[in-house]
Amino acid sequence: MKKDIHPKDYRLCAFKDMSNEQVFLTHSCASTRETIDIDGTTYPLIKLEISNTSHPFFTGKVKLVDSAGRVDKYMNKYKNRKPLGNIESK
After folding, report:
1. Using an 8 Å Cβ cutoff, are 26 and 41 in contact?
2. pLDDT given at position 73
3. Residue 21 confidence (pLDDT)
4. What is the reported pLDDT for 84?
5. In this structure, what DSSP letter does residue 45 have?
6. Cβ-count burial of 13 within 10 angstroms (0-12 exposed, 13-18 middle, 19+ buried)?
7. I need a labelling partner for 20 at 20 to 30 A (CA). Which of 11, 45, 61, 88 fits?
8. pLDDT in tens, 41-89
9. Rounded CA gap, 38 and 23, in Å?
10. Over the stretch 10-34, which tens digit does the pLDDT of each residue have?
11. CB-neighbour burial class of residue 14 (10 A; exposed 0-12, middle 13-18, buried 19+)
């Protein structure tokens, strides 16, 4: 195994799911400028758009999370189209 290829600055970091405000702690070496206080201890904060607490696969809820509005734009564009039905090749 190669020496000195793994980062040495693993530390506890707080990851925050911005869609439901859920926070969890785990080790990471990701750099961040923000911090958060949890139970009197300050941790580096990494913000997430989606995590296992809000992802439809894990929650069982059918919910589209799209911060840029791409899904709504697509649905509005094609909502009046009729289905093609059976198309046979010649």
Report:
1. no
2. 79
3. 87
4. 66
5. E
6. buried
7. 11
8. 999 999 988 887 777 666 777 655 566 677 777 878 888 877 666 666 5
9. 9
10. 899 999 998 888 899 999 998 899 9
11. buried
How high is the pLDDT of residue 37? 94
Structure token pair of residue 43: 């941790």
Residue 15 CB coordination number (10 Å): 19
- The amino acid at residue 38 is I
CB 44 within 8 A of CB 14: yes
Q: Calculate the CA dihedral of residues 35, 37, 38, 40 and round it to 10 degrees.
A: 140
Instruction: Please state the φ and ψ torsions of residue 68, each to the nearest 5 degrees.
Output: -95, -5
Distance between CA atoms of 24 and 36, rounded to whole angstroms?
11
The strand pairing partners of 38, in sequence order, are 41
